[in-house]
Amino acid sequence: MSKIPFGPTYDEMCNPSHIDPNIRKKALESKENELNPINLFNINWKDDNNQVHKIVLPKEMTGVEANIVVLLGKYFPSGSHKVGPAYSTLIEGCVDENIIPGKHTILGPSTGNFGIGVSYICNLMKYDSIVIMPDNMSKERYERIQKYGAKLDLTPGTESDVILTLEKTYELAKNTKNRSLAQFELLPNYRFHRHVTGNACIEAVKNVGNGRIACFTSAPGSAGTLGAGDQIKKEFPEAKVAALEPYECSTLMNGGRGQHRIEGIGDKMCTLIHNVLTTDFVVMIKDEETVQGLKVIHNGISVLESFGIDKKIAESMTDLFGPSGICNIIGAIKMAKYLHLGPGENVVTIATDGYDRYDTVIQNLEQRYLETEDFVLKRWFKDVFLNADTNYIADYRPISQKEKLFIQKEKDWLKFGYTKAYLDSMKDMSFWDNEYNKVFEYDKLIKEKR
C-alpha cells in the first residue's frame, strides 16, 4: 500500500484550505505539470484563493430575473469535475484494500469525461487502466484518454448506448485482475458530489442574491452530480432539484428510447446511485439546442455584444462550457421560468467541462447547416436562451411519479445481480444519509494510510 501516492480526503476536496499549507502550495504550483501526482490535491472546486470557480450568467443572456450560477468544472485536473468521483472511487478501494497496486487493472465505464478522469487518476496513482466507452464519441475524448495512458475498449453506439458499456464492463470484471470504478452504481460517486459539489454550490451563492438556492439543475449521466442536490436540500429545504435529459431519449420522463448528441449524458437507465427521492422535476432538453448554444457562446462574441452582454464577459465565456454545460444552463433558465423565480433568487447548475474537447462537435454542426453566420447565431441565441420555454417539464414530487422511477431502476439493475430488497432500501432517505456519512469514516482511513 505504500506505493500508492495517497491524495486528499473528502474534507480536503471540499475545503482545500484544510490541506497542509506546504502541500497546497506545491499542488498549486504544479498545475501546469499535470502528471505530477501532487495534482491529486487540486481535485476541488476552488481557485488559488479558495473561492468557488463559478460564473453568474448575465441576465441579457438568460432573460430571467433570477440569478443563474454555474460552477465551472474545467478547472479540475484533466479538465472535468468527473476526475473527483474517479479519484474517490479508487481511493476508497485502496483503503479498503480491494484494489492493490501492481496487481489490479482499473476499468472505467464512461461516455467520456469519467473515462478521462479514470485514465488521469490511474496515471497519477500508477495503475493500468481500460476505459470502456461508445465508439461514436468526439475524437478529442479518445485522444485525451490515450494521452494519459489508458487502453480503450469501444462498444457500439453513442451517448444513448451507455448500457452497452456497462454490460461490457461486467464481462471484463469477471477477470479477477480487473477492478471496476463503476460510476453508475458505486456510491463514492454520490459521496463526492453530495459532500464536495453540494457544499461548493452552497458556498457559491453566499454573496449572490438572497444567498439561498431555489433550484439545482443537472443532467444525469451517472446521476452522481445530482447527489449535490441532497446536500443543498439539507441547507435549503425549499430547494428544488431538476434532472435534465435529452428530448430525443427521455428515459426518466417516459421510458423512451432513441439517440442523442449531448455528450456527457448517459441514458436508457435510471442509474443505481440516482436518489429518486430528491428528484423533484424532470426536464427534457433538445440536443440540437445544446450544440447551437455552444456554437453561439464559443464563436459569437459580437453576437453576445449585440444583445447587451459586456465584451469582456462574452470573451471570458468562450471556453467555459461543453454541450452538457449548455444543457444544464438551458434547464436552469427553464426552471427559473417554471418556478416563477424573481430578483434575488438563485438557480445553481454545473458545467462539467470546458470547450477543449468539442471542436469536432462544432465542426459537425457546421457541416449540417448551410450557414452559421452572425444572423443565424442571433436567431439561435434568442431561440436557445432568451426564448427557452417551460414545455416538457414534469413534476416528479408525487409518489406515483417516484414509483415510475423505482420500477425503472428495478428493470435496469435486477439483471446485474442487485436484489429487490436492496433496491427497496433506497426508497428511504436513511439509506442515502448512511451512505453519505461514510465520508467521515473514509476520511479517517485515508489519513491513517497516508
SSE inventory with pairings:
Blueprint: H1 10-14, H2 21-29, E1 54-56, H3 59-62, E2 67-72, H4 83-95, E3 105-109, H5 113-125, E4 129-134, H6 139-147, E5 151-155, H7 162-173, E6 178-180, H8 188-204, E7 215-218, H9 228-235, E8 240-246, H10 251-254, E9 281-285, H11 287-299, H12 301-306, H13 311-317, H14 323-338, E10 346-351, H15 359-368, H16 374-386, E11 393-395, H17 399-413, H18 420-425, H19 429-449
Parallel strand pairs: 2-10, 3-4, 3-6, 4-5, 7-8, 7-10, 8-9
Antiparallel strand pairs: 1-2, 9-11
Helix pairs in contact: 4-5, 4-8, 5-6, 8-9, 8-19, 11-14, 11-16
Care to describe what's here?
With 450 residues, the protein is an alpha/beta fold. The protein folds into 2 domains: 54-75 and 194-395, Rossmann fold (3-Layer(aba) Sandwich); 83-182, Rossmann fold (3-Layer(aba) Sandwich). 45% of the residues lie in helices and 12% in strands. The chain contains 19 helices and 11 strands. It has helices at residues 10-14, 21-29, 59-62, 83-95, 113-125, 139-147, 162-173, 188-204, 228-235, 251-254, 287-299, 301-306, 311-317, 323-338, 359-368, 374-386, 399-413, 420-425, 429-449; strands at 54-56, 67-72, 105-109, 129-134, 151-155, 178-180, 215-218, 240-246, 281-285, 346-351, 393-395. The strands form 2 sheets. The protein has a 7-stranded mixed beta sheet, sandwiched between helices. The N and C termini lie close together (9 Å). The model has no long low-confidence stretch (mean pLDDT 91).
Task: Give a nutshell description of this structure.
One of its GO terms (biological process) is alpha-amino acid metabolic process. The chain is an alpha/beta fold and 450 residues long. It is built from 19 helices and eleven strands.
